[in-house]
From TrEMBL:
Organism classification: Bacteria, Pseudomonadati, Pseudomonadota, Gammaproteobacteria, Lysobacterales
Listed Gene3D superfamilies: IlvD/EDD C-terminal domain-like
Domain Dihydroxy-acid/6-phosphogluconate dehydratase C-terminal: 411-603
Function: Catalyzes the dehydration of 6-phospho-D-gluconate to 2-dehydro-3-deoxy-6-phospho-D-gluconate.
A single BP term in Gene Ontology: D-gluconate metabolic process
Cofactor: [4Fe-4S] cluster
SUPFAM superfamilies: IlvD/EDD N-terminal domain-like, LeuD/IlvD-like
Name of this chain's protein: Phosphogluconate dehydratase
Cofactor: how bound: Binds 1 [4Fe-4S] cluster.
EC number(s) per entry: 4.2.1.12
Amino acid sequence: MMSPLNPIVAEVTERIRERSRDSRAAYLARIDGAAGRGPHRARLSCGNLAHGFAACGPNDKDALRGGASPNIGIVSAYNDMLSAHQPFERFPFLIKNAARGVGATAQVAGGVPAMCDGVTQGRDGMELSLFSRDVIALSTAVALSHDMFDAGLYLGVCDKIVPGLMIGALSFGHLPAIFVPAGPMPSGIPNDEKSRVRQRYAEGKATREELLEAEAASYHAPGTCTFYGTANSNQMLMEIMGLHLPGASFVNPNTPLRDALTAEAARRAAAITALGEDYRPIGRIVDERAIVNGVIGLHATGGSTNHLLHIVAIAAAAGIELRLEDFDALSAVVPLLARVYPNGSADVNHFHAAGGLAFMIGELLDAGLLHGDVETVAGPGLQRYRVEARLDEAGDLVHAPAAQISGDLAVLRPVADPFRRDGGLRVLRGNLGTGAIKVSAVPDDRQVIEAPCRIFSEQEEVKQAFERGELDRDVVVVVRFQGPQANGMPELHQLTPTLSVLQKRGHRVALVTDGRMSGASGQVPAAIHVSPEAACGGPLARLRDGDVVRVDAVAGTLQALVDAADFEGRDPADADLAAHHSGMGRELFELFRRVAGPATRGASAFDAGAAPTRESEIPS
């Protein structure tokens, strides 16, 4: 039996609704106006429409000429270099056939870029990564701008791709939208083994060939990487927000069940257009309750800290103002129910086999920790998502009730016996600014670190200092000038093996940065997304080597333990960032860097009216 809604969940939702009242009303008025004009394709001129179906086969052409049947736009992040997106090569064929089977049509409306943070880690291309989210949103808008479509199917998986597709889809919020995943690759070598090889390589005890062999055995097949980083957090988010079909997130690619789910997504998209009787536009599905459910799912699974940026930006695209304080309040009441690498040794295939999202959603609903009364692409109510997708003996897609108990308590637990009583995410505030820390994998005795700081402006400098033995002590490593306006806010995941080695040697170590670390940050305490960033004169720019810094995840503070008058009187340091502003396409992103909003507001180039200022970001 479902419990009443948790009072903190209700309070946070109402607070978001109140602060968003005007912006949400303006958004809904805009999409309702677009919907009220009826199916757009029918209003195209003959020349416009002829261009729109010129390449179609005879049957599809006849259907599009008539204008009475749904036409589904496919927006795809397919490429065949990236394992997560290669399976999408087959999806348009499956979707088109399924659409024809219910009297609809489907066209590939356009493609969006899909870059891989795993390939670009530590490389110049990583400085395009975060802004690729906004490029994807823009590309989605271009794809849909032909006004030919009654619904959209969005094929994307990885880090910035799904958030970018979401922002673009919400701009066309009068159209129904279903997100169609590709699924995770089968499990490779155990994650603990991969991590050990990485750390041995960081210490110079493993060769490059040994490291490459371990990495290749981990990332070895089509499908999403199996650790619980941003890509798989995206899939959880789409399902718990009701934008996937139930049970779709973690089914492996190129299997009969995955194909059946893809075909069903096409049929369902046709059924929920304005041409039918069950119209479900994405702009109505993504409301304050759905956003709160997404944040709760992030906490319950120990998901990627990148979503401190992405969910905020997604919410803003729907006219909803989500703040870090909302994440913090919800984290206090949402238990951690999953341990998936890097928060544990299991991968997402083990999580799915143990009961996965169906079990977890059911647990959270029964505990009153999710809004159950939401709208979803599958129909009204989130209860529809406490099921597992299967094939019956005839090969047809069916749904079975979720397991009542976890299949592996080392991976997935009930609300009554969680891994933690809270979500393990903290907002940090203090004289160094506002940031966040994820402690779901950080040992209890490492959640407060106080030590002299060592300051860097490049992550490569950290590795060099480590190799010289200069960090072999208690230290707070500060890597500044890594924010969106400085260099595009790259991930600093390459620091993880180095800092992990120092921690394993017994030193008390923490990272403080205005950059990102993502869902792969692991067991080293990391105060990330510190805002305002150093490039905008934020407090990190006034730190000096040797200043004692306290990172306190228990109290939620981030402090330089120095004389206040002296600290305020210091001239902020500057950095020569010219090398980060050209080459590898970075010169094309100057406009994005110049207008990007602060990390606390999603670090979006669409947030040009919110230039970061120290006064607006630091609490009194």
